[in-house]
Design a protein that fits this description.
Number of strands: 9
Oligomer: single chain
Helix content: 40-55%
CATH architecture of the largest domain: 3-Layer(aba) Sandwich
Low-confidence stretches: 86-120
CATH class of the largest domain: Alpha Beta
Shape: elongated
Strand content: 5-15%
Amino acid sequence: MGLEHRWSQFLEAVKTEIHATSMELFELLAPVEEGEDELVLSHPSEFMAGVCADTSMNGMIFDMLVAHWPGAPPKSVRVIYRPNEDQTERATLPLFQRPSDTAPPPPRQPSVPVAAKPSIGSPLNRAMSFQAFISDNSNEEAFYAAERFAKLEDAAHFNPLYIHGQSGTGKTHLLHAIGNHVNKTAPERPVLYFTGDQFATIIIDHIRARRVDLFRSATQLEGAVVIVDDVQLLANKTKTIEELFNLFNWHRLRGAFLAFASDLPPAEIPGLSERLASRMSEGLVLTVATPLYETRVAIAQTWAESLAGSRDVFAPEVFELLADLFNTNIRELQGAVKRLNLRRELKGLDHLDLATARQMLSVEMAQRQAKSPEDIARVICDQEGVSFDKVRGKGRTTRLVQARMWICGLLREETTLSLVEVGKLLQRDHSTVHHSLGRYEDHLKTPAGQARREALRRALRAS
């Protein structure tokens, strides 16, 4: 029986023993020669050949050979680098691929975001760069820190970096921008990018296959940049959190760079161990908030230009409507721009005016206005411990002023009321409402302000 035939039998035998992702590693290995004491294998990637020579990875391969090799198993195994025609350097391996092993990206059309081929872990979206990120007071600290972090040699005071804030505020964009910048400026560094749910799924699959050691070997890479998004999705997943802690410690002790993003700060994630929360907080923890109104307008204009080649296909008032309607989640804002542009194209319109845009967004507008403005104001008053009648009165106690501020801000976010209409509801003039909105925007720049807004939104949804 020839060596290649026995290797094929071995591969068939191990398929039922390990996770499919791990199986791809074995399928890229090829037998070279078999001596009395040693089996020599080759891998078409110089990088992965080096990883397979590592003690833990080499031991895992050897264990599988001992258990499943047809005939007398070898006493040792050695993996060498050998490119060949059958196995290309550019194999697709979700867990075992680095940027230098992938083909150069094709030229990107500015109107179509292109996802990069995977490095290690999930793919990075090349459209998410620092240049494409629109920064304002709501996220400028996180933006500056992410840029400094991505330069690596200047990142000691930013490591580990932890960014948190509600969904759709640009956290994922900043993490992808970090990974893309590292891939461009330091291609020799592996980038391990995981989303929280993907990380948990991989851990579960490897536990079922009893091959957690393979995951550890694949991710314990010297000099790597480790990026984990949506950490809150690991809540109460004890074993997954334990593996994240092990991954964190292994890399941190070797001076690696780690960046995280979550909807919650470390201490507020249920089930996250105190020791891991503490380590995540030892670098720099920053908050991002919903972009300001002007920034939302600019984001909508940028997306319209990328989709249609010009922002002039929408009337200026359409961008203002979009910024008002979709004021808490940038992903929803981008999705609305795409829907409007699609509907414009279907109707054969060269230009979309405000009246037509309102008709096209009637469903979204109706959803936003399902609760009356007065109902919203009364719920906020209840949460602030004041009466609605007194809020509409002349009193200027701290609690009444605060309640008016929250009502003005949330009515602008949750409804399509104009400043004049908000003023009529509160029996205030336009300038007073404008002043309250300015205080509201300033308040949202603080973690306490963002937390209070989220609490009031939860109360509105529950009422």
